[in-house]
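User: Run a structure prediction on this.
Assistant: Running it now.
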Amino acid sequence: MSRVRIPGAGWLLLLLTLALLLRLPAHLLAPLLVAVSPVPCRLAATAGTLWSGQGQLFIHNGERWFDLGPLAWEFLPGDALVRLRLGDGRIAWTSPRNIDIDGIVLPAASVLAQPALGLSGGSWQGTLVLAATQLQLPPGARSAWTGAGRLLWQNAGSSLLADQPLGDYRLDWQWDGSTRPRGSFSGGRPAAIEASGEVGASGVQAQVRLYGTVASVLAPYLALIGQASGGVDGYHVINLPWP
């Protein structure tokens, strides 16, 4: 078998091309990010290269822009295909079939007011934290990702609920790739709100207990969420079927 010989000039051209590719500026990632993102976003104040750089990430919720903080990225860092850092959080694409996410903090309004979610408008308050989340693509599967993780809603609230603080909530979820996500949630505000429930194939079922003056303020709103029943001693059962 004959070998292909590359003349010296060819090697020089190859090395120059490789050097140019490695030095591509970071701002080239901005249009790529806009093209693949499911929500409007932009990347500003970039520095570094396309392969290892940083910038400021912004996201739009249909009403206004949110500054999500500094985004840093590194492609092919050795132990992962891609490594991202957003603020103090991280996303690591550790293999073509595995993604790890932890500590990603987002303003609640930047997510909950996205038009695709179909939630009522209003100034959502607090922060959402993606913690201890792992996504996997099982062997043989092409697009049916599975996963499990934890979602925290800290200092929750909304202007739709008379600006009444709702407290902190935690959702532990699992997804097998073929059905809707499942999970359980709990949280509330001490001496005011207690909530817990399950997320299943048919929808969401929640049990909410309201105490004191909070009951008179928030109870009317519960009747607007799915099919609410109860109300005796501040205890409500809410069934919210999937659309």
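Residues 8-22 form the longest helix (15 residues).
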